[in-house]
Amino acid sequence: METDKIEQVDAYLAGELQQDAARLVEAGIRGDQVAEQEFVVQAQMDAALKALMSEDALHQNFVQGVMASVQAEPERALTKSVLTEILDERDAAAGRHQPKPFDWWVWTKTAAIAAVAAAATVWTLQSVRMDSGREGQAAPQPKFLARLSADENAQWAENSLKAREDGWLGSGRLDLRSGQAEVTFGSGARVLLEGPVVFDVEQMNRGFLKRGRLTAEVPGPASGFVINTPLMNVIDLGTRFGLNVKHNGESDVHVMQGVVEVSRARGRSVPLVLTEGLAVLADRRPQSRLKPVIYAGHDFVLPEQEASVLATGRFLHYGFDESGGAEIDDTGVGMSGGPFDISLLADVGSTSDAVDSINSSPKRTAGAVGRGLVFEAGDRLQANGPSLLAGGTRAWSVMLWTKVLPKADKNGGQEMLVWGSPQQHWRMRWNDEVEAGTEGALRADFGEGYVVGATDLRDGRWHHVALVFIGEEQGGEVTDDRRQEAGGDKIDVATHVRLYVDGKLEPLSGGRSQVVEPLPGADESGLSSFSLGGAGGFEGWLDEFYLFDAAASSANVLELYKMGALETAGAGIGRSADGFENVGE
Fold this sequence. Notes:
single chain; 585 residues; 13-stranded mixed sheet; disordered C terminus
């Protein structure tokens, strides 16, 4: 069917044609088998869009399926096209009349097929992989999406979203009456809000500015950060920009550095790429183009650089950079009970459960930064650690560099690190269970609970990996009342763990809930044990191990990744016959 006829059929289904024009469309279709088939296709699409726009129970399932489909699609152009079509159809629906049926046999047949097609569309879109594959369980959604990282003279509305004492925020609306507040998203993007402002935290890389001013700073790993307004969509590609929304919804964006993609939220929504020093306005006329305006980026306040985690936190650190010998120094600062120096020589006479003489120790080799350790099957490095690792609900962060063999062994060789106590223990490994999530991706386990990332680590290259556990609020006794104030839920592995690979927040491909309970006071004060190389089956390289006694921010993770990224960039793998680097002591 020609393009003009398709447009006529679409207008017919929308009820936009006058009576005479509608009769002409009916006459053109009747008796033409090809035209009837095309009409059925158009009716199917129309039914699907009506399902999207409806308010019944099917609506939310349809929307969820559409969003899953477009989010899984790597081509942003297609995503933009789909969302734009949905918005245009939804906006136009209010002014449309019901289509006038022609011969009952055609319309009855079409309506029946369209209804089935709409249901099939919903079913198909819902079947897009959004879960871990285990019993249809959906991939877990994080409990905390962002952090209130700084504020100055901030006065909040009574109904504004409340941050925990340690700053963590869930989804919801921030209503800042006056002053300034900085919000750092899980992806690493930061926005500085200038009151009065109303801003919604929606996802770990997306927000909505309803009214007021903000400045956004987006590091490379958070590229793709989105801020929507009532009239404008802004996709940041790694830059700084200022955004202002007036009371009538008119929005203007000013690019201070880098590149952003801007489009209308509806109507004439063709995307426009803006570079440094450019600014545009979206007015209230949906069919008008984005209007260039005078650049005023200097009027926006930039967020201050977040303090280094190395300067503000207590941590344990093994760099493995000693020139020789068996001793490995803990070069961290302020960790209770430390320093925790360890030895590559097993202390056979020790009564500690952390020592197992049947396992050998790893050997020194070239690392991600300076020297590191190489593990063959049976190697592990065990020692006592700080009480922080004994378990419980206190926040912590673990980071290290790792290099996994491309054909790594699945038979017990996944664990890079295990730690804990007889009561509780954690595991950090790559995922070997396809039904749990992406195979080869970073995985954290606690009891029966787990979360799995999305990046396959088994490529023979160095990767910086991090687990961040957002536990109870800092200080004070753990009580059910405090849990209720913190968000109502108990601490859950599936919602309180973040995974990072190479400084970038990992989307979760799978997970399973497991509540983490506080340890009795006596257990929390005792030392823990940990094992690099897990239970002794890991094959690969480890370097630059850090343990922090707090939930590190995205900026902190990125900082430590950058410290080693330059040294690992482009590094090849020169293996000897046994598969490991031939680097001596």
